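Section 5.1 Outputs to date
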Amino acid sequence: MFEIEVDKIILHSQSVRYMTRGNRAMSFTTKEYTSFKQEIQSKLPPLECSINPMSVSLEIIYPIPKSGSNKARLEKVGSYKSTSPDIDNVAKSILDAMSGCLYEDDKLITKLKLSKKYGDLEQKKIKIIVKYKIIDK
């Protein structure tokens, strides 16, 4: 298990752009997504890249918005976050960023557990808690 803190999550589906040159269509990844991916990879502990199937659990903890009364903010502590971004898009971005570091390819993930919650009032960044277990063949 390890924790990563990031300022914001850049979603993979928003990061791919398309353009045409003549009669050819080309896709490219935005600088923001590339920088997000590098930030995740730089914060990963030194691990051996697995080539075995694994189970991964992601707990994404968001800071509580500053808007609203203190009472309303206190009620959100530890509760599930049901607003955007979509949890599947967040998971895809994080799993793609860890690909090549924690595992050879994200196709090796055979079991995935996700949650998206609010943290405490003091939290300033998005915290990603990763738990993984290599599955014996």
